[in-house]
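Troubleshooting entry. The earlier prediction with 1,6-di-O-phosphono-beta-D-glucopyranose gave an output that would not parse, so I re-checked the input for stray whitespace and re-submitted. Clean input:
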Amino acid sequence: MLENIKCVIFDLDGVVVDTAKYHYLAWKRLAEGFHISFTEKENENFKGVSRMACMDIICEMGNLKINQDLKINLANMKNEWYVEYINTLDQSEMFDNVKDFILELKKRGIKIALGSASKNARFILEKLEIKDLFDTISDGTRVKNAKPDPEVFLLAASDLNVNPENCLVIEDAKSGVEAAYNGKMRAIGIGDKDHLSQAEIVYSQASDMIGLLDLIKK
Ligand code: B16
Ligand code: MG
């Protein structure tokens, strides 16, 4: 049983929508411009990781010695491509059951928050036409410290005046699960059981989170 849950905090990429494939295409385009091979395997390390931290990984992979200004320009370029790719995003790309799950939680009086590293989170929620379902949006535009630092989740809890121990985080990234625990919150994982072994429950697919309705108690 998941008792005393007053707020559910959703990660975005990998939990609400599969934007990872678009991040992948944009990073791949940048990496291959520097003759760095970039496959879905490398992309796994980019999930839940902030844009500039991803840029640092690209530099390490290609042994690129470039200054901070150029790094920022390249990360901006990647973002322009990414935004171009997600420009046609719509509700059909949301994971199944997520909207119904949110609606049912709201009916039960449980607060809904977003806790995402992305600076494009609001744009994506607007595209998916679900922005208004969120009681607060804590994202990469509002925090300094990347997951596993709990800042993004603690900010959501403080926006809603809910104690961290009454928050349940749903995350697809290991660093996100760690961030939840670092913030004294509870955590559910979406993805690979071995990779997310710290989480209280791990569902292999986002659509399975609907099963939490039988377990969550306010
Ligand atoms: P942006 P999440 C994360 O979203 C993505 O998983 C990660 O791949 C991306 O680099 C990061 O957002 C920053 O995104 O470039 O749009 O600011 O999983 O925390 O919702
Ligand atoms: Mg994620």
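This one parsed fine. Residues 68-86 form the longest helix (19 residues).
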